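Students often ask why we bother encoding 3D structure as a string. The short answer is that it lets us treat folding as translation between two languages. Here is a chain of 631 residues written in the first language.
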Amino acid sequence: MGWGNPTAWLLLSVAPLIILLHALRRRRRTVTVTALFLWEEALRARRSRFSLRHLRRNAQLLLQLLALLLLTTALAEPQWRRQTQVSGDLVVVLDTSASMQARGPRGSRFELARREAQRLLADLPDGARMAIITAARRPMLRSFFSADRARLREILERLQASDEPGALRPALLMALNLAQRGQGDEIVLISDGADELPADLDPGRTHIRLLQVTGGERNVGITRFAFRQEPVPAGVAPEGGSPLGSVQLFLEVRNFAATPAQARLILGFDGRPQHAVELALPARGQQRFVLPVTQREAREAYAHLEVEDDLAVDNTAHAVLGAAQDTWVLLVGARNEFLRQVFAALPHVLINSVPEVDERNFAQQARGHHLVVFDRVAPPELTVGSFLLIATTPPKLGAAASTAGWKGNGWIERPTLGGWATNHPLLRFVNLDGLRLARTLRLQVPPGAALASDGQGRPLIGAYDDGSLRLVLLGFDLLESDFPLRVAFPIFISNLVRWVHPGSLRFSAKMVQAGEAAVLAVPPRATQLRLLRPDGARLTLPAHDQLTLRYEATDRVGIYRWQGGNELRAFAVNLLDPRESDIATRDHPAWSAPRLRPGVVQTTTRAYWRLPLLLGLLVLGVEWWLWRREG
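And here it is in the second language, the structure alphabet:
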């Protein structure tokens, strides 16, 4: 037991004053006597007022002293402390990647994982809460901390395994941001362990526990399904007059099981099978094929494996075939032969050029071009479209990117290259090693937007993409660098054109990996796109004042068909991930340890000042009643 305000006990020092006032209190009354000796009796009664016996009999005094004691006790805030072991909240990270669809004797791995999550929910202590995160290509928070068992159970029942490759690390980082280690919170990862577990997240340090589900380890899958355009010599028309020319298909099939497998591979176009190949795959073996595409007018291609295995999502691959579309580029600024020649050398790229733009009709100009290049010319406000800014920065971005914070504060003389993001689509196959610059703008870009930086980490190239606005910023003047003289320059421009307009290739096989965003071209004057998913769901996507639209819900493999105006188009989604197709069980002993922190011993304090306060007020009420009664 303790006291929250022990100085309140000093109020008891007024108790002697109360006693003194009661002792000195006199009540005058008139007494009529008939004899003198009776005065002596009256005087003796008066002297008896000062006796302790009289004080003990004085109920009002006792009640006042009791009220003082009780009120002082309330002000001193009596507290009782006790130590209890408290169970923390639970964060469940549920793996929903494609490998969780593998089926075994007890059902799919995801069904087993859902049962484990439901068991954890049933065993959750009273008062504890649960949060649910799903982990596929991107993590998703399905439920924040909640103690509503019925709602959490309903969320678990609705979850399904996706066709996306897995990425556990981002989901675990999200879980670590939710959990409070000091409160005994625990993170439980329910997964088949087929994906690589992040080595930097030590379970002993982060309090992450793995519940591994297994079942089904035989799998044969298609891991490569790619088309390529054969080079056509200059001045020679494409073979057969077809706009596609001569096309080859590259296909790879792998056996991930520890035993040999037999399979039948079927290749077809527009829903009709054209080729069939019998495969005999050794254990952990693979076969590759390079086949000519003779169906040049076909719109869709597919490859399908007829095989008995435990994972079906990688047994089929699709592609949507088509000729390239023209890409319109607007060059704004003084004539720059380097830019003009590199854009003119790209197939199906058409160029317009103006020395400057008028802000009043710029929005209409931007909508009529797939890419607008501002070369050393300050642009107006940028809202919708794709833009390349060279040695200049935007004064203002649209509402969707108003907080992006792109600025240029002066110049940096003779910067040195520090590094660049080789995995970004803009810098793929681009070698900037030894790049020479006379100067560059001192750029300020949002976090994660820098693609290349100098030796001190200051951005040289930046990129921004929110679906409706795509912005690429070169902080340096091309004419004050050797970038246009390098092989990397036409590769960079080609990557840029493909990034802003994926249909710009002479031949295109439209496909993305499950979980990747697909860029949909918006037909002129179309205000919305109607999309049909492979699972039969129909969606309507708004597309006002946009040339392209990013669609990110590509969680199912198959053909996605969409229509804008009178144009009907499609794109394909495939798994094509050898790591995800390898469903062999892996042991993770460090992650599968028992519960690391069963709880936290906490000291709880509870104050009891209300009871003495109420009793003190009650005693004062009784004392006041007695005082009124005695007059």
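Translate back mentally: Residues 442 and 453 are 11 Å apart (CA to CA). Keep this in mind for the problem set.
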